[in-house]
Amino acid sequence: MAEFVGDDLRGSRFEGVDLAGSRFRRITLNGAEFRATDLIDARFHGVDLSGAVLRGARLEGVDIYGELGTLTINGVEVSGYVNAELDRRYPERAAMRPVDADGFRRAWDVVERLWTGTVERARRLDPALLHESVDGEWSFIETLRHLVFATDSWIRRVILGDPSPWDPLDLPWDEMPDTPGIPRDRTVRPGLEVMLSLRRDRMATVRRVMDGLSDETLNGHTEPVEAPGWPASFSFPVRECLLCILTEEWEHRLYAERDLQILESG
């Protein structure tokens, strides 16, 4: 089996090559061209397909879950239809697009309420199942760990200015490069109550930020944090940081609900 790690293969040509079962991780394929290529049962996770063009493609049984901007299929722009249907299925989803400080507070009310129900659902399961992965996705416990990481990064570091806010149980997204000072231990198995205690602390921090938010501060920018870590030491729009947290909380709760249903069914 050939291995290419850290190699510069720009401009390479692959033709008549069997790459079935290959694994591509942290790969740059900007501007690549695929012709007469078989991608049956391929899986894409954490990929950026912005600007991708598919011609003569066959899509059957395809499952796409991600952030949709403009998406045109057979000449029809469909993202509006998709977003409208999601709003219909989840009436609270519209609250995740607030425009002023009061709207952000109401959005966080929704997040707290919905997660309370999801946690109660998780409590009814065998604790061992909360460490189980469904279809290769994060377990329920890992999802909680990732949300702590998101809060530590966007709220405690970027907005509140803590240069190193991370807890040892924080879990970055899988594709994030190893970064000094940021933990990413996938082997630990903290119990539910341990994680809920950490989550309560971080959610209370977000609540304090939301409660103290004004329209003026919402439309302002953060001060760069002059220390290594993630996000990088830039000034960010406060609105962008808070929207990121709302999106993380909303989407990962849906993932958790989806997987809890499967775990409940055995």
UniProtKB/TrEMBL annotation:
Residue stretches making up the DinB-like domain: 112-255
Residue ranges that the Swiss-Prot or TrEMBL entry lists as coiled coil: none
Listed Pfam families: DinB_2, Pentapeptide
Domain of life: Bacteria
Annotated signal peptide: none
Record protein name field: DinB-like domain-containing protein
Originating organism: Couchioplanes caeruleus subsp. caeruleus
